[in-house]
Amino acid sequence: MLSSIAIYLTAAIVCVALMKRLGxxxxxxYLLAGILIGPWGWRLIDDVNTARQLSQFGVVLLLFVIxxxxxxxxxxxxxxxxxxxxxxxxxxxxxxLALLSMARDIKPAxxxxxxxxxxxxxxAFVLQLLAEKHELGTAYGRASFAILLFQDIAxxxxxxxxxxxxxxxxxxxxxxxxxxxxxxxxxxxLLSLSRFVLRPVFSLVARTEVxxxxxxxxxxxxxxxxxxxxxxxxxxxxxxxxxxxxxADSEFRHEIEARIAPFEGLLLGLxxxxxxxxxxxxxxxxxxxxVFGLVxxxxxxxxxxMVVLARLFRMPTAPAIKLGAVLSQGGEFAFILFGxxxxxxxxxxxxxxxLNLVVTLSMAVTPIVYGLAATVSGRFTDGRAVQPYDAVIxxxxxxxxxxxxxxxxxxxxxxxxxxxPYTALEINPEQVELVRRFGSQAYYGDASNLALLQAAKLDxxxxxxxxxxxxxxxxxxxxxxxxxxxxxxxLARARNRQHVYRLLDLGVKVIERExxxxxxxxxxxxxxxxGLSARQARRAVVSxxxxxxxxxxxxxxxxxxxxxxxxxxxxxxxELRTIFEADPKLNPxxx
Length: 591
Hints:
- The chain is mainly alpha-helical.
- The protein has two domains: 49-378, Up-down Bundle (Na+/H+ antiporter like fold), CATH 1.20.1530.20; 399-590, NAD(P)-binding Rossmann-like Domain (Rossmann fold, 3-Layer(aba) Sandwich).
- The protein contains 25 helices and six strands.
- The protein has helices spanning 2-21, 26-37, 48-69, 72-77, 79-102, 108-119, 123-132, 139-166, 178-208, 211-231, 236-246, 253-278, 282-286, 288-312, 317-326, 332-343, 349-377, 408-417, 429-437, 450-455, 471-484, 497-505, 516-529, 534-556, 562-582; strands at residues 399-402, 422-426, 443-444, 463-466, 489-494, 510-513.
- Strands 3-2-1-4-5-6 form a six-stranded parallel beta sheet, sandwiched between helices.
- Helix 18 (408-417) links the parallel strand 1 (399-402) and strand 2 (422-426).
- Helix 8 (139-166) packs parallel to helix 16 (332-343).
- The relative contact order is 0.08.
């Protein structure tokens, strides 16, 4: 066992280092390592099943981390690209590939599994590739993330679908829906455990201040949930995913993710090594034209569908081409789905080996496809390169401003006039250039990036002013700061009341609504224009402000319940009208 582990690690280190040296993604290194040490390479390890069983835990942790990312607020913010572009990509690509499979005399139920399985792309591969190219923050990078997120969500019903199809290889077997009822029952149980057991346990463990104990607790939750699913004959990966979902809105999400990440990366690497070992390269030797024809067909179909859909969703041509290229390969979940279909008797061994090999080879050629697409897409751009993030100067300032738009600029100008130094971070490169032309200093970068905040010496700062325009980016930044820089005081700008509620959830005490004061000032002028005295208008505005701020705090307690929130707002409006009617200084006749 120890010798096998040594071989795994040695091969992984050498091959990943080689791929990185050549400018390719680390996933390719893992695949190459598996091929070299497996039965079709140097035959250093013949027991592929043992490696595959061990590596499954990497996939379990990956699903858990993906579940942690599925906060309802994030899903709602990305609802259009996730459920629009992502849903259409999965549906159209799956149908096209299923029809092509049926044209090769494959049964409809099996063709459906093949089509939907091949429609998914590699989350680990794509995100790593985009991160290495520093393009996660681009328009097509964000679209890629949204599509991959939908595919990750779609894995769950697909894992439940395969056993149902296998019972009769007919779509009519879906009618009873017992698998769905099981999932809903387990989800209800897990939600109850999360509220009454998991959160108190994590709170207790966190107070011990023993990092290893927190890590062990997180791993226990993943393993325990997976065992529950296994006991009722459902997918263990589904259990891990649900465990992540129920903890996505907890205050321990970031800490759990940070503790799990090293295990996830290492075991996921082992998963790709096992995939490389299991790749039946004998099929390449016996039927090369068939294998390479299938790989080329898969890439062409996925690329074409993705580019067409991206253009329909009004994405410019250049990023649409890159989006199609980066998502053109098969994904790691296809291995899991096809393996499950094989275990359920839905697919033959030969068909499973062929599909797994096609997915593996499609991953291997993705860097080449992406390079060609980048060259072609350059013809549809204005020639400007994507600007990399600035390197923040190693200087300690007591103030850090995140967001130097129309709101943050005012604070920056006042601080500059008072000769108080500050560090400003802004994600819009055009805005950075604009403020620099007028003599202000700003750094181009994403304030929700931990490395950037560390480089900006936030740990040495006294105050962080969050003036970010995007509410979701604002919340992500504050969550990160609360976790890693708890001693920094946070002042935040809010776009609207919903943004205020989310900031209050994070414990932010000083919040200013960006249009609130200017709206009140203009309303005061409106009242004077309508005939009220300047004193009456001022009193009305001041009274409204005082009452609205109190009502805002009251509404915060029920804002997640829309019915209660609407009722609270109606009651507040009626109460405010009563207060104004009873005020003798607003109604002189009642004095």
